[in-house]
Structure formats: C-alpha cells, structure tokens
Design a protein that fits this description.
With 282 residues, the chain is mainly α. The chain has a single domain, classed as Up-down Bundle (Growth Hormone, Chain: A), CATH 1.20.1250.20. The protein is 80% helix and 0% strand. Helix 1 packs antiparallel against helix 10. The chain is elongated and about 65 Å long.
Length: 282
C-alpha cells in the first residue's frame, strides 16, 4: 500500500470547516424536532389525546430518531467504505434536510387525521437514519485528513456542530415565539425553522462538495481493489472489526453512551428551568 501524502494545514482546516458546517445543519434539524415535539406537536399532531398523553406521544416520536441512528451509522459506514465518505455525507445531508423540510409542510391531525402522525414518524425515522450516517462520517473524514500527531484534535472539531446546531434551533424558535402571538406560532410560525432548513442544507452542500476524499481513503481503496483482484477482499469488514477488536469497539460504544446520556440530561435540565412562553399550548 502506498503511503498517503500528509495534507497541508489549510486543506485540513477546509475539511474541518466543511464537516462542521454539515454537522451543524444536521444537528439543527435533529434538535429542532425535539423542541417542537415538546411545544407544538402535541397540539398539531396529537390533539385528541389528554394534554399529558399528547406530550408523551410527541416525545415518543422524538425518541424514534435515536432508534434509527445506529442503523444509519452501520449502513452508511459500510457503504462509505465502498463509495467514499464524501458521497455518503452528501446523501445524509440531503436526506436529513429533505425530511426536515417536509415536516415543515406536513398537514396536522385536523387536516388529514391519523395520516399526519404516521407521516411524522416516517420522517423522524429518516432524520435519525441520516444523522446516524452523518456524525460518524464527518468525524471519520476529518480524522483521515488529520496529521498523525494531531488526529484526535482535528477529529474533535465536528463535535462542535452539536451545540451549534442546538443553539441555532432553540434560538430561532425562541425568537419566533417572542415576536408572534401564541395562536400564530402554533398555526404556522413553528414551520418557518423547518422550512429554513432547505437554505442551511444548500449552504452545507456548497461547502461540503468543495472537498475531496482523503489520501488515506484513496490509498485504502487501492488496497481494496488489489485484494478484490486477488480474491482476498472481506465481504463484510464490519464483522472482522467485531471479531478482531471487540474490546475496543465496546469501549468506544460505552464511552459514547456515557457522554450522550450526560449531555441530554444536562441539556434537558437547563431547558426545563427556562420554559418558553408557548409551553401551555401543549
């Protein structure tokens, strides 16, 4: 295998910026749904339920995204090794943005009945599936571009897209809730941030399409092609990873589990201390 050339610092910074842009947009979409599920969706999609039950049903659709995320990560990871990181990152961004935009257009229960929450669940599954492929792919392409001495440092930057996306989603909904009447916000105002996702996705795509596959990935592709020609290429590399490195895989999974649980508990505690004006509508 040919040793890949080490990218320049400017190239690495460009890749980091592209990864952060896409990650910020995708987490904006993901967290935007969470806030709307607590404030708006009980009224719009579950109006026939007891108010408390409506909130639980709406938050249940939010949880569905977490079920789809690891499935998306596995599938996008597998095909990312075959087709390339960049292609799959573009697909995940388009998938997430399209689902978010369609949620903004989705008629409520009063218009199409049970079809409304059913379609909401489908779109939430698409969001979770897309995000599962996005986060791992964004970190991976940056780590492959990063120099060996500072690979962990560069790979940490896409994670900054998580709080940036949440701040953007919460901030936009808060501004709309302040400048609109409660009736207008629940009727159509909440849809604006979902529709604006299309603009953010176009910006993210413009930045993301400007980067190339990493030298590390191109070298790995060349090796894979040689293995395929020799008949020694693994059919399912992910199975080999679990067989050869089970301790490392489950350690990484446990670390991510602990970090994610802590993050969501902290965020929800802060959010519950500062409820927005429209919570009574739920």
């Amino acid at each position: 295998m040919t040793t890949p050339l080490t990218p320049t610092r400017s190239t690495i910074v460009k890749v980091v910026a592209a990864s952060m842009a896409g990650t910020t947009v995708e987490w904006y979409d993901f967290f935007l749904y969470g806030v709307a599920a607590a404030l708006v969706f009980p009224t719009v999609f579950f109006p026939g339920s007891d108010p408390a039950v409506g909130v639980l049903l709406a938050l249940g659709t939010f949880a569905i995204g977490f079920i789809a995320r690891p499935i998306g990560g596995l599938i996008f990871g597998h095909y990312g090794d075959i087709l390339g990181r960049k292609k799959l990152l573009v697909i995940s961004l388009l998938m997430m943005g399209t689902a978010t935009f369609l949620i903004g257009l989705l008629p409520g229960y009063a218009t199409i009945g049970l079809l409304a929450p059913a379609l909401l669940i489908v779109l939430r599954l698409v969001q979770g599936f897309g995000l599962g492929g996005e986060w791992g792919g964004a970190v991976l392409i940056v780590s492959e571009y990063g120099d060996p001495a500072r690979r962990g440092y560069w790979a940490s930057w896409p994670q900054a897209g998580v709080p940036l996306g949440q701040l953007l989603a919460n901030g936009l909904l808060a501004v709309l809730a302040l400048v609109q009447s409660e009736e207008a916000f629940l009727s159509w105002g909440w849809r604006i941030p979902f529709l604006l996702s299309a603009v953010l996705v176009l910006i993210g795509l413009f930045i993301r399409l400007s980067i190339e596959e990493s030298p590390v990935f191109r070298a790995a592709q060349a090796t894979s092609a040689a293995d395929a020609a020799a008949g020694t290429k693994a059919a399912m590399p992910i199975l080999d990873v679990f067989r050869q490195y089970p301790r490392e895989v489950f350690t990484a999974m446990g670390a991510r589990f602990a970090e994610n649980v802590s993050y969501y508990i902290w965020v929800r505690l802060v959010w519950s201390d500062t409820p927005p004006r429209v919570t009574s509508a739920a």
